[in-house]
Design a protein that fits this description.
Elements: H1 6-16, H2 30-36, H3 45-48, E1 50-53, E2 62-65, E3 77-79, H4 93-102, H5 111-119, H6 132-140, E4 143-147, H7 152-160, E5 166-170, E6 180-189, E7 194-199, E8 203-209, H8 210-215, E9 224-228, H9 233-240, H10 246-264, H11 267-279, H12 283-296, H13 305-315, H14 319-329, H15 344-362
Helix pairs in contact: 1-15, 4-5, 10-11, 11-12, 11-13, 12-13, 13-14
Length: about 375
């Protein structure tokens, strides 16, 4: 039987026992995460919007699945008519972008109203996507979902169907400035191969070429977020497709970025591969990819690396290396950004993968 790293064994045990450790206090339950690994057709009723009926006394209930709405095909060009523009305050691109996306629902609030709930009180801290769903739901009855592995075509289809996705990218080309930045996609034009974004720093209806958009999205795992009305969830799920399921998304993202890393052999491609391998629970691959990415170019400003690289090392039992890398990546300019705790789903996937391998070795 293979020996797994002690750290992974301990973390896996914590997961199996219900994520009782402090590091996993905020993580979803294992039962919930396990359901996310099932095919989309096997997900819970909350995601499938299904009803059940009983044909007769003593018979099993028959499931009636409501067909998902058919998304509109993306036309050659679309632009949101109504979306206000907000100039951000210091380091407030995230809340400002949320406010701009909310304006498409007729919600008019200030970025200051959104700043503290979504970023906290430290003016140097940036905004992650994790708090947005609870905030928009509590205040406006809306929801949000975020995923990695976005594509230009997905964004076109989202906009064509009335959604205004937010993305995390470089604010400008990293050869000019290495600042991670939120912006909102307002429209696109295929003839010009251009997205139009409401950017809280650069302006209203800023044109960004498809090629620039894609390449400057890669370093941030092609992350996107959509704020939506709950009644439109089935439509949104149909557009996002297989990636709506978190487990499927992690696998798809891993396969995509692994192929890109070997084909492109750039720093950004290898860092994206490292992020995807980490999220998929392949911590050894993640460390190798991160090392290659850092050897090929600067990773300054890639904020996700501050958590995922050290956490991958910790999962392998390399605590001293993890501490040294954390110190190296957390510069004085970025010290205000708190690193994320271990990804519980990645640890669960790694633990289950090891369990399956061990069980396979026991088969005669």
């Amino acid at each position: 039987m293979r020996r797994r790293p002690a750290a992974l064994l301990a973390l896996g045990a914590a997961l199996v026992l219900g994520l009782s450790g402090a590091a996993f206090a905020a993580a979803p339950s294992l039962s919930t995460r396990a359901q996310n690994l099932a095919p989309a057709g096997d997900e819970g009723a909350s995601l499938l919007a299904q009803t059940t009926t009983t044909a007769a006394v003593g018979t099993e209930p028959a499931a009636v699945v409501i067909p998902a709405p058919e998304p509109k095909a993306a036309p050659a060009s679309v632009v949101f008519d109504e979306m206000k523009h907000v100039w951000q305050s210091l380091n407030n691109c995230g809340p400002a972008s949320v406010v701009m996306a909310l304006s498409t629902f007729g919600v008019d609030v200030s970025q200051e109203f959104a700043r503290v709930p979504l970023r906290g009180t430290n003016v140097l801290s940036g905004m992650g996507p994790q708090k947005v769903d609870g905030w928009v739901n509590a205040n406006f009855g809306l929801r949000s979902v975020w995923r990695n592995n976005g594509t230009n075509d997905l964004l076109r289809r989202l906009v064509a169907n009335g959604f205004a996705p937010m993305v995390t990218q470089w604010m400008q080309d990293p050869s000019v400035s290495r600042i991670a930045h939120w912006r909102v996609v307002r429209g696109y034009d295929d003839a010009a191969s251009t997205f139009y974004v409401n950017d809280p720093m650069l302006g209203n209806m800023v044109p960004l070429s498809y090629q620039w958009f894609q390449s400057n999205w890669q370093s941030f795992s092609y992350r996107y977020m959509v704020i939506y009305d709950p009644k439109d969830q089935a439509l949104l799920k149909a557009i996002i497709g297989d990636d709506w399921n978190d487990g499927h998304m992690r696998k798809n993202f891993y396969e995509r970025t692994r192929a890109d890393a070997y084909a492109q052999d750039t720093s950004a491609a290898w860092v994206a591969y490292g992020e995807a391998a980490y999220g998929y629970g392949l911590f050894g691959e993640a460390v190798t990819a991160f090392e290659r990415g850092m050897a090929l170019g600067s990773v300054q400003g890639v904020f996700t690396l501050r958590s995922s690289y050290p956490q991958a090392l910790r999962a392998l039992g390399r605590q001293n290396d993890a501490d040294a890398m954390q110190k190296r990546l957390t510069t004085s300019a970025s010290s205000a950004t708190v690193s994320s705790p271990p990804d519980p789903f990645a640890l669960y996937l790694a633990f289950m993968r090891e369990q399956s391998a061990d069980e396979a070795q026991l088969v005669p």
